[in-house]
């Protein structure tokens, strides 16, 4: 899913900064071209790409098999922490922006 990056926030994810941020939050990261790939908890794959100075794509894939509620909640919280640090917007602001785009038909 595409997320807006707060104005002036791009310098925090520019170059190797995105990979360093993922390492800090998830504890692991590898680069494949312009993509940074990580995993955490029930999230088997967390793939992040900077699309533009104002746009970031975060794609996730859950692992197969049984998952506990605690594992799911912990993984979702970590992903939200990362998304906030990478975009500059908290979960509430990201949701409002997505709702606005959906209403405008640009999502």
Describe this structure in words.
This protein has a five-stranded antiparallel β-sheet with strand order 1-5-4-3-2, covered by helices on one side. Helices cover 40% and strands 28% of the residues. The chain has three helices and five strands. It is α+β, with helices and mostly antiparallel strands and 107 residues long. Strand 4 and strand 5 form a beta hairpin.
Topology:
Blueprint: E1 2-4, H1 17-26, E2 30-32, E3 35-40, E4 43-52, E5 55-62, H2 69-87, H3 91-104
Number of helices: 3
SSE order, one letter for each helix or strand: EHEEEEHH
Q: What is the helical fraction, as a range of percent?
A: 40-55%
| Binned strand content | 25-35%
Q: What does the radius of gyration come to?
A: 14 Å
Tell me the overall shape. Answer: globular
